[in-house]
UniProtKB/TrEMBL annotation:
It is an enzyme of class 4 (lyase). The active site is at 97 (proton donor). The gene is pyrF. SUPFAM superfamilies: Ribulose-phoshate binding barrel. This is Orotidine 5'-phosphate decarboxylase. The keyword Lyase applies. Pathway: Pyrimidine metabolism; UMP biosynthesis via de novo pathway; UMP from orotate: step 2/2. It comes from Halobaculum magnesiiphilum.
Length: 270
């Protein structure tokens, strides 16, 4: 079993030091950002800065989803956000779900020059992930059993061997973990699969989305999401929009929501 790489060691240090496995999802949706911020030059950055100020002491990492930044101002906002999170010593995991033929994946993998870890789609196989995997000091979270209702449509399909596809993905990800830089994405809405996968790949840390707005199982997320104490449980809308109706005080409510989630998850940690 390879040891954790630099990213996972940094994450482990952060988790231990701050006593939290909360991933704060920065899905800065312009349709939900408080109105008074919309006049700013970069509203998403203005929003994220306030959210980071209010939540960083409860955050093991920040997870911006690329979908909310894929325009010119969005990328500028994201760069400012990443620099600010780093200034608070919090790692950043970009939820980008990339993966393509090697030549294209090589360009996607350049995203890792700016962030500490990324989510990747394994559907096109090992060569499509190699450019990410070869960045030995970064983290690569491979989509395995996703939290959405349609996650079962393909991921649960039984292979000729009798095993479901998500289990094969987990086994492959374990093989791809030569550098100790691989984790899995497994949704909190699939607690049975979380438990099963923890048994299959005991050494891979999980990123567990789906608590909060999606109603996933927080206890299962913690009990099975961590490998040797390392793993992340993400909430995005449940934290960043907790103060949606609080006007100028919106970030305070986010800080309280992040603290509540941290405390709740910590009840299940060893
Ligand atoms: O299986 C998956 C993989 C990724 N996500 C992403 O996580 C957050 C969840 O947001 P919430 O507001 O906490 O529901 C979002 O960025 C998703 O794209 C996921 O939910 N499930």
């Amino acid at each position: 079993m390879p040891e954790f790489n630099a990213f996972f060691e940094t994450l482990r240090e952060r988790i231990d030091r701050e006593d939290t496995v909360v991933s704060v999802g920065l899905d800065a949706d312009l349709d939900r950002i408080p109105e008074h911020l919309l006049e700013k030059d970069l509203p998403r950055w203005a929003f994220n800065r306030r959210i980071i100020d209010a939540t960083h002491e409860y955050a093991a990492c920040y997870k911006p989803n690329a979908a909310f930044y894929e325009d010119a101002d969005g990328w500028r906002s994201l760069r400012e956000t990443v620099a600010y999170a780093h200034g608070k010593d919090v790692p950043v995991l970009l939820d980008a779900k990339r993966g393509d033929i090697g030549n294209t994946a090589r360009k996607y993998a350049e995203l890792l020059e700016h962030v500490d870890a990324i989510t990747a789609n394994p559907y096109m196989g090992r060569d499509s992930l190699e450019p990410f995997l070869s960045k030995a000091d970064k983290g690569v979270f491979v989509l395995c059993r996703t939290s959405n209702p349609g996650g079962s449509d393909l991921q649960d399909l039984e292979l000729a061997s009798g095993e479901p596809l998500y289990r094969r993905v987990a086994a492959l990800a374990d093989l791809w973990n030569e550098r100790g830089n691989v984790g899995l994405v497994v949704g909190a809405t699939a607690p049975a699969e979380l438990e099963e996968l923890r048994g299959e790949v005991p050494d891979l840390p999980f990123l567990v989305p789906g608590v909060g707005a999606q109603g996933g199982d927080t206890e299962a997320a913690v009990e099975h999401g961590l490998a040797d104490g390392v793993g992340l449980v993400n909430s995005s809308r449940g934290i960043i929009f907790a103060g949606e109706d609080a006007g100028e005080d919106f970030a305070k409510a986010s800080g309280q929501a992040a603290k509540r989630l941290r405390d709740r998850l910590n009840r299940y940690r060893d």
